[in-house]
Structure formats: C-alpha cells, structure tokens
Amino acid sequence: MPSTSWGYRAIMRLGAALAPVIGLVDRKVADGHRPRRGAADRLAAWAAVRRDAARPLAWFHAASVGEGLQAESVLLELRRLLPDCQLLFTHFSPSAEPLARRLAVDAADYLPYDLPGAADRLLAALAPDLLVFVKLDLWPELATRAARSGTTVALVAATVSEDSGRLRWPARALLRAGYAAVGAAGAVAEPDARRLAQLGVAADRVRVLGDPRFDSVAARVAAVRPDDPLLRFGRGAPTLVAGSTWPPDEAVLLDAFARLRVRRPDARLVVVPHEPTEEHLRAVDRRAARAGLPAPLRLSAADGAAPLLVVDRVGVLATLYGAGTMAYVGGGFGRAGLHSVLEPAAWGVPVAFGPRWRKSRDAALLLEAGAAVALGGPGGFRSPSEALLEQWESWVTDEARRAAQGGRALEVVTRGVGAAWRSAEMLAGLISSRHPRR
C-alpha cells in the first residue's frame, strides 16, 4: 500500500502550524481551527464509551454543507440496509456544523488536520470498517493509513471536473497515494470515472452510480409542508426567487427588476444573499434605491408579501424556492462558482443564471433539457440585465411556456433520483463482505 510523500506531510504540517496565524485575519479559518484542535480528543472519547466492537462502523467525511447533504442521503439509505451499523460523520468546513448536529448518526465532529499522529490515533480508537469520502475531499494520510489498518476506503458522489487542479502537477503527484488507497468508488458520471483513474483510483474499482444530491434535494422539497409560512411570500403574484446571490448578481437582478416593474408592477422579487451580513444587506438597500425600487423589506420584519423582499437569515432558501414561479441562482457572474440549481428545479420552476456555469453538471443538464437559461457574458449583443429582463418578462406573460420549462426542470431531478440507494448498496456490500474482520 503506497504512503504519502514527505512533501505532502511537510505541506500539511506547515498548514496546521500556520492556521492560527491566518485565523487572525481570516474569520473562516479561525472558525474552523478552534473546534478542529480538540476534535481528535472528542472522537477518541466517544469511541472509548460508545464504540461497539461487535457492530460495524462506517465513517463518512464531507468537506462542507453541500457534500454533507449528499452524504446524508446515502447515510439514510445505508441505515435502512444495515440498521445495526454505527455511523460517524466528520466535516472540514464550519458551514457543515449545523447539518452535522441534526444528522441521524452516532457521532459527528470536525476532521482533525491530516497528520500521521492524528490519523493513527483515530483509526486505533474508532476501528472503522469503512471510511467514506464524499465527492472528492479525500485526505491522503488518513486514506493510506486506513487502508493499511484493514479499513476499506471508499468514495461516493465522486466527481472530478475537467479543469480540476487535482489533475495537474504538483497536486496530482501529492494526492496520488490517497486515491490509490480507494477500494471502491461510486462516480457521478462516466467522465468522472475516467478522471478518478487519472488521479490514481484503480479503474476496476470505479462504478458509475449517479449523484446522491438529486435524492437529497428531492427529499428536502418533499418534506416542506404545504402550509409552511415561507411559501406565502410568493402567493398571488409572479415571483422570482433569487438564491445565493453575490453583488454582481444583485446588480443584474435589481436593474432588470426596476425595468420590469414599469410594465408589470405586480411582479415580485425575493433576494436571498449567499452571505446575509448586515454590510451586504445595506449594500442591497442602496443599490435598490439607486434603481428607483421600493425599499427592500427584510424577511425578519415581514408579515406578508412585498414587492422586494431581502432574506436576512440562512437555512431557508430550499423552502423559499417553492414560493417562486421562477428562479435565479447566484454565483454565475463571479469567481465563487454557480450555486446549486437543483433546489429550484425540484420545485418545478425554470431557472436563470450567469455565464460562468460550465463547472456545474447540473446546470448543463437543465440547459440541455430546455429547463434553464444562461445569461450572456461579456461580448454579447445585450447586457446581462437586458437578457434577464427579456426572459423574466417572457416567464411572467407566457404562463404555459414557463410551466413547461418548470416541468422539464422537475423531470431532470426525478431522473437523477436513486443514486443514494445505489451508493448505499455498494457500501453495504463492502461492509458485509469484511465484517467481522476483528
């Protein structure tokens, strides 16, 4: 079994040592570093009291909340297939902490830094039968040492974009040992399977199983009650819900909305910033005033629908998409990357987004199905706000066309459901074939 290189270990040690210093100027780094310092102690303490050596243990790791939602759908299916299996969930980003607290698992915490001592200590304490990395957040030190200890290493929802930095030198060389330790991988699609082999996963260990994100999104939408108070903000008027927006998105949205209201004063806009800080919300207020729009109403102060509603809390976007008759997804005009387009699609509404969508497989599927619209980038004949205005007005005035596009969006989501069960079935087979191994 290959080991990580001295270069990889040196980089990890340097990163762990610098994290407290970087955290002085970067709040996100600080928020992750503080709880990560004691994570190994907490997990070892849980294992000393709660770990049942007579039962198998599947350890899932996801980087952030998006990958955590993919993990959740697989976890639920695995629990149904192997109800006796203990489940552990770790994450890297602080954004996944609220999700980790509500998951139906035996324990959840941050993943310690990928250093030899921490990896050996946790593997000895937890004795996992299965270590599952979600999407692509595989940590080579932990993976290689787990494989050497007899734990099967797996990947689910594995996807590798064609321009992923992991495919280039030096990342590819530094990470290769970790991917070589993978015993089974469930890829989202055929191109992902081929790129996993480029990273070092043995080709005969890769199966194309689809994306569990479709299962997760469909389940979240199905769980929303018809009388949920958030849904009332879209009733009675054509409403566009703009989710996970950044300032470049809001510039396009508010300009288009101001011009749309001249012809359709009944139209409504709900803006859900990706980071609803007070500074960001005040900037939206100022931009709306410059566009001649009504003063935005904050969700926390709203008791009913408003022409322009700005959401000042997190965790409600997936439900709010259900209040809309159409949707806009942010991130397509900046470097943050396009955010998830599946939530609005699962509600059966058509979707618009900016020109930087090509790293999103889901956006490509919606465009191919005629269920979404990508607004033009630089060099087009129309500005992005003009393109959005034209599409927005079309959706408002042509209900049949809008409904047809929304129906196609829902079909895309429906066709993708089932990957969570297939992934769980693969993992259950790995556990059943090896347990009891002690």
CATH topology grouping of the largest domain: Rossmann fold
Query: How much beta, percentage-wise?
Result: 5-15%
Number of helices: 18
Backbone structural class: alpha/beta
- So, CATH architecture of the largest domain? 3-Layer(aba) Sandwich
What would CATH call the class of the largest domain?
Alpha Beta
Shape summary: globular
**What integer value in Å does the Rg equal?**
23 Å
Residue-averaged pLDDT, rounded? 93
Major beta sheet, specifics? Answer: 7 strands, parallel
Report, as a whole number of angstroms, the end-to-end distance: 20 Å
How many DSSP E strands?
14
Number of domains: 2
Q: What proportion of the residues is helical, as a percent range?
A: 40-55%
> CATH superfamily membership of the largest domain, which one?
3-Deoxy-D-manno-octulosonic-acid transferase, N-terminal domain
Structure commentary:
With 438 residues, the protein is α/β, with parallel strands linked by helices. The chain has 2 domains: 6-212 and 418-434, 3-Layer(aba) Sandwich (Rossmann fold); 223-415, Glycogen Phosphorylase B (Rossmann fold), CATH 3.40.50.2000. The protein has 18 helices and 14 strands. The strands form 2 sheets. Strands 3-2-1-4-5-6-7 form a 7-stranded parallel sheet, sandwiched between helices. Helix 11 (247-263) links the parallel strand 8 and strand 9. Helix 3 packs parallel to helix 6, helix 4 (65-81) packs across helix 18 (419-434) and helix 6 (116-126) packs across helix 7.
